[in-house]
Amino acid sequence: MVSYNKLSACCISHEFYKVATINPNKIAVIQACGGVKIAKEFQLFCSENGDGETREKFEEFVSSKTTSVNPPVYEGDECFTYSDVLSAVDSLSSRLRCILDGGDDPNLLKPSSVVNMHHTANNCSSKGQSILGSSDQGLEQYKQLHKTYCPRIVGIYMEPSVEYIVAVLSVLRCGEAFLPLDPSWPNERVQLVISSSKASLIVGYGSSVGGTCHQLDKLQWLIDKGSYPVFYMSMEDFIPKKSDLLLGWPCESERLRSFCYLMYTSGSTGKPKGVCGTEVGLLNRFLWMQESYPFQKEEILFFKASISFIDHLQEFLGAMLANCTLVIPPFNQLKDTIFCVVNLLQEYSISRLVAVPSLIRAFLPALQSIYYSTVQIPLKLLVLSGEVFDISLWKMLVKLLPQTSILNIYGSTEVSGDCTYFDCKWLPPMLEQDAPGSVPIGIPIGNCDVVLVGENSPYEGEICVSGSCVAAGYFCHPSIFPLDNVELHQEVADAENDKNEVNCYFRTGDFGRKLSNGNLVCIGRKDRSVKISGQRIALEEVESVLREHQEVVDAAVVSRCVQGDILLLEAYVLLKQKESNLEFFRSSIRCWIASKLPLIMVPTRFYFVESFPMSSSGKVDYKNLATLAASEAGSRIEIEETQDIDLINVIQKAFSDGLMVVDKISLDDNFFEMGGNSLSAAYVSYNLGINMKDLYTFPTPLKLQKAILHKKVSSSRELRADALVGVNSQVQEKSKLPSNKSWMPDLDSSISLSLTSDYPIKCLKTDSDLYIDPYDFNGRDMNNSTMTKVSCSYSRCNKVRHDARCEGYHCRSVLSWEVPRDKRGLMRERWMVYMESCVDASPLVVFKERSAYLFVGAHSHKFLCIDATSGLVLWEIKLEGRVESSAAVLHDFSQVVIGCYDGNIYFLNFSNGIPCWNFQTHGEVKSQPVVDKERHLVWCGSHDHNLYALDYENQCCVYKIRCGGSIFGAPALDEVHEKLYVASTSGRVTALFVRALPFYQIWVQELGVPIFGSLSINPSSGNVICCTVDGSVVSLGTEGSVIWKVSTAGPIFAGPCISRALTSQVLVCSRDGSVYSFDLENGDLFWKHDIGHPITSSAYVDEHLLLACIDSSLSQRNLLGMNLEETSSPLL
């Protein structure tokens, strides 16, 4: 049992204030834009000239760019003093406090929805909420009678920068918790984390930030999303301003926050999990380092880790709390070439560096170069963590950096990053007695206890940790759930007697062995989590995402160690059907998964198999799967067996796979300038059978080809056999259009729809008093009907379109049945088509040439044409994004128009689904297109706030207009008065006169409340009916004035329904679970019917059977019998 010492610091905010006020004019942060530029020029010099004279000239050039020596500052760098940072923290923390308390701010962009659900859900600090199941048994502050509160979550969406540091310190100062949101994550993952955390506010860069140090376009998509409150900032907003609002210190509050930061890691359940880290854990880690390896004030530290990696916190907190200078390279430029780090260490005299072993291994080619062998690297302390530290790597580092102390630190996000340490100066004598296998992880840091639990404990078992470092738990709004703990009984001796105490230890999942000298060695894991570049990855999460792909039946992911200690992920995939071009599909699926997971989690290799090896228990045998992969990877060919042209193709293909691009790689494309990093370099070198340092030396296909042929590479002369797959075959040219299963050779687009389907069709037995059968009550076969050959379409809100031969409202294209009005009926499923994912929009039903078709899309990216009578899938197409809108059909019924989440509006051939053309907007398209047959236009809105008019005959956009917010609902076209109305999430309704180009705006009505549903037009008066999310139904006159306004008891997310069968009524569905019928002319309530469950979709009225169809949020469908003669409540 370890006794815990009281920390000498009360809180991070106090400690930083003390340091900043002692030496306010000292440079705290250098944003090394100028240094990186010099480093890149140095690389160019070294690649072109290798003689000492050139190096001396370059060193003179570097000196000429120096503006300060202590600390080194170069032209183009941005410097900030401790006074600057403190002033910014003081100002920002006050503004954040004001915003979180409900105030406004000029830099605050509020969400488009009226109700800020995140703010409401997280407003727990005033409710005396205590954490549930806290595992932090070692914290004296949390063991006392004090209650804790659950802080609000503030997301910080930035790359490493001085603004990020200010944002973190400001959130801590105002008593809340920060959530790092890595801009390198795919947007989908960022949204998932924000949603899971219920973040109250997102903080990002403001547009006023200058220079080349930041990527400013990263925040715009979140602003355009309009779903979260966003505060944008830059250092210019705060220097030299000071706040008038004085905040109390967090450590002096009556109640302590249960955690101060939330970090999401990969989860074995298939979803990321949020770890609630404590301020005590961060402080304990800093104070231990300060005591064991003290910071000197003249030291210069380096901040280069991704903010999704727990180690980044100590990278900048160590410098800020120790009054050191911190160098931050521009993150977007640093990743272009990993060698820049080595140059920056030298240029800025960096004394401490935190890194993962795989990153250091990537540095070795630079450290081993002739230039650096003659130059003393100023590094005093190298801290390695996050991965197994191989002894062979330690031996190389000792030779290259003889004056540098090397630490191996072990930990995870759940233990504030680190809980044990090993000083490598202890290793030489240890190797004489033990054979640890890898560099040990050592002994616990201060105020932490580490034990081994298992059958062979205390000498071997699972590594379990307790103490100040352990996190508060896992976040699951609105509570904190305990970590995976184990309770241990330990004897504790006090002054009077021995007693037995029960203590909780966090089970890390790692297994260790205790050496004879008491140091621990990590020997692996029994679960399926791995660490790559220091970040934990649950292979189950990667598999879970792969299974979401529309062509994947199942997936299994394993890891492989290459180049010594670098792990790569390999995916084995079962496909629904065999792909004709696997190489193209392999690149496609890698790009697809890269849009959903961080790059570190994307498999570097994909194998397509027919089955998985199974264990006796019926589970996937991953060990056998990895063995099969190893044997396949061992298949190699001699380089001499390939011609020069084949070799260059092999290298180009390897580059393309490593960079996850399909486009052709040119002979002179630099792998690292195109985005390559140490991980992708490891994959390429492994696939080509060369040493990774050769790729850094010869980074273009042409240089690498010459080096291999002239035997300048330091590796074997073998290439992986599968590297040649698809090189000499003619690869299909990448199409800009999505794939379609009807795309067959020699396909005649005039041929009628194919009656083949790859989808299972479920036909269900029916037994109902009111069931519409393909045979009507008189035994008439619908398929053999003598209906006139006319075409009509029906979609949500009773939007109907007829072709020129149709009789309009008296159309007989749809059969009708006589149904007794006194009978109650039931609905039964006739057929079912599996859409693979959520269907978020109403289908489009089209009657054409005696046949009935149904067009519908899903989140699975698929858009289908289905025979409405049999359920047979006639054709399907895979678009580039989710489909969340209903489709429309052109006036001549030749094309179907559908919007997509990738921002495209697709025009598809009605007969076979082949894209005729597409128009790209700048945001997701959720709005149903509206066809204007008089002008041959399609009107459609987008999340980019624009309404577009597309000429479908000339295939171009002829008009667009900004509408103040994202457009979810379909516009309403008044063909009689030649007007068009559109609403947006800002609450703006815009009226346009569209008789002929140029169109112009007639009026704008700002309702102030978001409108998500489509608009409808009163056919008798021309007034437009709209529904807002606050539950209001508004009728606007043709001049924009409010004619009437009524309210329902709940929010409204769908549009109103106006049917010609109910000439005086408008039907509105509300989230309160009720359907309302209002008088179109004055808004009087005709009737109200309670379904009993929230309704988010529009009503649809069957104008022949006089039934209103209502879908509730619980996937229940209700039919209401309507009566034209009465206005009483309908019959369910």
TrEMBL record:
<dbReference type="InterPro" id="IPR020845">
    <property type="entry name" value="AMP-binding_CS"/>
</dbReference>
<dbReference type="InterPro" id="IPR052091">
    <property type="entry name" value="Beta-ala_Activ/Resist"/>
</dbReference>
<dbReference type="InterPro" id="IPR015943">
    <property type="entry name" value="WD40/YVTN_repeat-like_dom_sf"/>
</dbReference>
<dbReference type="InterPro" id="IPR002372">
    <property type="entry name" value="PQQ_rpt_dom"/>
</dbReference>
<dbReference type="GO" id="GO:0009698">
    <property type="term" value="P:phenylpropanoid metabolic process"/>
</dbReference>
<dbReference type="InterPro" id="IPR000873">
    <property type="entry name" value="AMP-dep_synth/lig_dom"/>
</dbReference>
<dbReference type="InterPro" id="IPR036736">
    <property type="entry name" value="ACP-like_sf"/>
</dbReference>
<comment type="pathway">
    <text>Phytoalexin biosynthesis; 3,4',5-trihydroxystilbene biosynthesis; 3,4',5-trihydroxystilbene from trans-4-coumarate: step 1/2.</text>
</comment>
<keyword id="KW-0587">Phenylpropanoid metabolism</keyword>
<dbReference type="InterPro" id="IPR025110">
    <property type="entry name" value="AMP-bd_C"/>
</dbReference>
<dbReference type="InterPro" id="IPR011047">
    <property type="entry name" value="Quinoprotein_ADH-like_sf"/>
</dbReference>
<feature type="domain" description="AMP-binding enzyme C-terminal">
    <location>
        <begin position="541"/>
        <end position="619"/>
    </location>
</feature>
<feature type="domain" description="Pyrrolo-quinoline quinone repeat">
    <location>
        <begin position="835"/>
        <end position="1103"/>
    </location>
</feature>
<dbReference type="Pfam" id="PF00501">
    <property type="entry name" value="AMP-binding"/>
</dbReference>
<protein>
    <submittedName>
        <fullName>Acyl-activating enzyme 19 isoform X4</fullName>
    </submittedName>
</protein>
<dbReference type="GO" id="GO:0043041">
    <property type="term" value="P:amino acid activation for nonribosomal peptide biosynthetic process"/>
</dbReference>
<dbReference type="Pfam" id="PF13570">
    <property type="entry name" value="Beta-prop_ACSF4"/>
</dbReference>
<feature type="domain" description="AMP-dependent synthetase/ligase">
    <location>
        <begin position="154"/>
        <end position="475"/>
    </location>
</feature>
<dbReference type="InterPro" id="IPR045851">
    <property type="entry name" value="AMP-bd_C_sf"/>
</dbReference>
<dbReference type="Pfam" id="PF13193">
    <property type="entry name" value="AMP-binding_C"/>
</dbReference>
<dbReference type="InterPro" id="IPR042099">
    <property type="entry name" value="ANL_N_sf"/>
</dbReference>
<dbReference type="InterPro" id="IPR018391">
    <property type="entry name" value="PQQ_b-propeller_rpt"/>
</dbReference>
